Amino acid sequence: MPNFDYEAPTTLKNALKFLSEQGEIRPLAGGTDIIDQLKSNRRNADLVVDLKRVPELLALELTDTQLRIGSAVSCTEVHKLTAENGCFPALSEASELIGSIHIQNRASIGGNVCNAAPSADTIPALLVHEAIAHTTSTEGERRIPLIDFFAGPGQTVLQKGEILKELVLPTSSPNAASAYLRFIPRNEMDIAVAGVGSLLEVDPVSGVVKKARIALASVAPTPVRAYAAEQFLEGALIDNSSIGKASDLAVDAAVPITDVRGSAEYRKELVKVLTKRTLNICLERLA
What we know:
- By secondary structure, the chain is of the alpha+beta class.
- The protein has two domains: 1-48 and 57-171, Uridine Diphospho-n-acetylenolpyruvylglucosamine Reductase, domain 3, CATH 3.30.465.10; 176-286, 2-Layer Sandwich (Enolase-like, domain 1), CATH 3.30.390.50.
- It is 32% helix and 25% strand.
- Strand 8 and strand 9 (155-156) form a beta hairpin.
- The N and C termini lie far apart (52 Å).
């Protein structure tokens, strides 16, 4: 591993001061990605700033209207809170899929977002729950819809000295449910060949879809929303026919590559299958 300086500030002010210095400054929210990247020379660093001691970045709060997740909060903490309260099920499922239990105890949801891997498991779940990224720097704060946060593989719209402070998710309607599924070659600790998060809000009397959200992982340079499928479902009666059509339309949002884990056509077929399954899971959870 290359040599670098290390700081572990205990205030947000000092953290932002270090992050605004000259050179290659790398924030560390969990370290499960950046440490490996430094070891393999995929990233360089003059200074690593550990954010795990900054109180504002460790906030985790669930209210009647929203869920706030500080950027340094671990996957384990998010999974425990959402599972115990029976809320944000797609995120609860996704946060339990990242690596091993040991990695989940250290890795953060914010770090998974900022690493910006197209295959990141938590991002589709966050997207279907319409997460807003709250960022901060010495210049001020920004609020960015998460779908606009990604600029390419491993790239975000964060500027020099700017960090993700927290993710804020609005509470879903009681008539809404979500789900996340991925396909991996092995049983665990693998990267998704494709992943799909879905959310449905359905009128309990008419069976008409009031809101549909579908997000895809590992099938484009960045995580994507399947807008055509969402628009088709909204206002439609939810049944096997509409779910099948939406699953076909979801494929239109996918622009996958062929690599050692699967061909582009294989990934498109996975999108169709996983979309259908997640939509059906949503329906089961609403029953």
